[in-house]
Write a structure and sequence with these properties.
This protein is of the alpha/beta class. It has 2 domains: 327 residues, Alpha-Beta Barrel (TIM Barrel); 165 residues, 3-Layer(aba) Sandwich (Rossmann fold). The chain has 20 helices and 14 strands. 53% of the residues are buried.
């Protein structure tokens, strides 16, 4: 590049460093999150102008194959095509493998380390192979946060471990699997989002630790991944006042340039977390946020609130000398170097999910189930009370989900509780559950609760411990299943009578429901089912 590029040349080179959000669906009317997912007209315009990356969410794996071809056809250069598929491609795209959350293997590692490490690598290989065959070349994982704070509302089961050694070893094994599959990986969220009690999607968390503490807990997993040749590191939207009292890590030169680049020696891609998240968007406009992040040391700008404004702001900052032109050259070099390490997509017409993938899905679920009592749940005309921390229908739960259909076959009528539904709680102090609203009979309690972005700590405030004690006191608790957070299980398990059938599953997907309920429900309830449905 010459020392004085034209305006058009500069804009195109700046645009190369943006990663914008798109639906995995083909049609605009299918977008689930139109606030963030660009229309096809805007996508085509931006890609033709040189925007170099797209992050996708939603749709089926089959649609994703078509979508990635469509996006690449609109672009005059190779694109970075990525997704947050931390738990397998099926976590975001129907029809692919949806695997148990990483923390399930973190817990397994404490008991059977060699088995957990082998499974983590297979997990990465399965995710990478399916991502590549769907047209993705970049997996936004592994999570390298150490979830040493059970109150963390956003990392939780997404972490590979609750201590630095476990988190680092398993994240590195996952990354080795991605590498074998020929896709890029991304260690996140630097320098560590595990010990926070607020969600950066909603606010700006503060991590009050000094460098000595970071070296002991937060940084070792990132150091292990950097030593293993990780392709990219994603920033965290959190404030570390001991390193930079003014700016969050995403916008801090002290964190991204001094700590990550200089001290840890990382020369791969640095990508921001999504700039539309409230920790950033509530404090800076789209242009200024992009400029601050790029000046701090980020190479790629993920999900700016306004892509055109971000390009305008970066061009102006480079023209004025606020940001040296060498920063642009370095970022483009890193992006293009990463793309040379990507294997070509597999265009074969064979099944996306192989027999080995199916076996892995089942092995991961079975190895992570914890059963408390040998007793089965007795068929009865009762209530299947389900709490789900999402909008219905959601990926774990639709009308055909095993958590609904299997108990129904044994007499338990589903009653679903979610954020948009009727509250099950009494208005006045005392008994926590308003049982008169729910109905008569034994209660099978199923809780789908885990740390989820955008929910903060709202689910942790619900008095499920009091509800379990209430149901036991009334002799109405038929059984308990918890899908998701191990911390909720560890809170409720000591409250249970030893005769209550109970089980914990880190996974919330239909396979986990089927296998978990298969352990607690009798194999056949045909006679009861006939009586109940008549």
């Amino acid at each position: 590049m010459n020392s004085s590029p034209t305006e058009a040349e500069l804009r195109r080179r700046v645009a190369e460093l943006l990663v914008v959000r798109a639906s995995g669906h083909l049609e605009d009317r299918q977008r689930r999150y139109p606030r963030w997912e660009l229309t096809n007209a805007d996508l085509q315009r931006l890609l033709e102008q040189g925007v170099g990356g797209v992050i996708l969410l939603g749709g089926s794996a089959a649609e994703l194959r078509q979508r990635t071809h469509q996006l690449q056809a609109w672009a005059p250069q190779p694109l970075l095509l990525c997704a947050d598929v931390e738990e397998g491609v099926g976590q975001r795209f129907e029809g692919a493998s949806w695997l148990v959350p990483p923390l399930a293997l973190g817990r397994l590692h404490q008991k059977r380390p060699s088995v957990a490490l082998a499974l983590a690598e297979r997990y990465g290989r399965c995710t990478g192979d399916q991502a590549r065959r769907c047209g993705l070349n970049w997996v936004l994982g592994p999570v390298c946060d150490v979830n040493n704070n059970p109150a963390n509302p956003v990392i939780n089961v997404r972490a590979w471990g609750e201590d630095p050694e476990t988190a680092g070893l398993l994240a590195a094994a996952f990354q080795a699997g991605l590498h074998l599959a020929g896709v890029l990986g991304c260690a996140k969220h630097f320098p560590g989002h595990g010990d926070t009690s607020s969600d950066s999607h909603l606010d700006l968390p503060v991590l009050p630790h000094n460098r000595e503490r970071l070296d002991a807990i937060e940084l070792p997993p990132f150091q292990r991944l950097i030593a293993a040749g990780i392709d990219a590191v994603m920033t965290a939207h959190l404030l570390l006042p001991e390193l930079d009292p003014q700016q969050p890590a995403t916008l801090s030169g002290a964190v991204l340039t001094d700590l990550l680049r200089r001290d840890l020696g990382f020369d791969g891609l640095v990508v921001t977390d999504a700039l539309v998240m409230e920790a950033i968007a509530a404090r800076h406009g789209a242009a200024e946020a992009a400029v601050l992040a790029f000046a701090a040391g980020a190479d790629l700008i993920l999900m700016p609130a306004d892509a055109s404004a971000a390009i305008d702001g970066l061009v102006e900052a480079l023209r004025s000398g606020r940001i040296p032109i060498q920063r642009l050259e370095d970022a483009i070099r890193r992006r293009r170097s990463a793309l040379t390490r990507v294997s070509p997509g597999d265009e074969s017409e064979g099944p996306l999910v192989t027999a080995a993938d199916l076996a892995l899905e089942e092995q991961l679920v079975e190895s992570s189930l914890i059963r408390l009592s040998a007793r089965e749940i007795s068929p009865a005309a009762g209530i299947n009370l389900i709490r789900v921390d999402g909008v219905l229908p959601c990926p774990p739960l639709d009308s055909s989900a095993p958590a609904i259909t299997q108990p129904l076959a044994h007499g338990f009528r589903p009653v679903l509780i979610h954020g948009q539904g009727v509250s099950p709680w009494q208005d006045q102090p005392g008994s926590p559950l308003a049982l008169e609203r729910l109905g008569d009979g034994p209660v099978l309690l199923q809780l789908f609760l885990r740390g989820n972005p955008f929910r903060g700590d709202r689910d942790s405030r619900e008095p499920w411990g009091a509800a379990v004690l209430q149901l036991q006191r009334l002799k109405r608790l038929a059984g308990l299943l918890i899908y998701g957070s191990p911390y909720l299980w560890e809170e409720l398990q000591p409250l249970l009578n030893s005769t209550i059938p109970a089980l914990y599953s880190p996974g919330q997907m239909p396979l986990a429901q089927r296998l978990a309920l298969g352990q607690l429900l009798p194999e056949s309830a045909a006679g009861f089912r006939a009586d109940f449905t008549d």
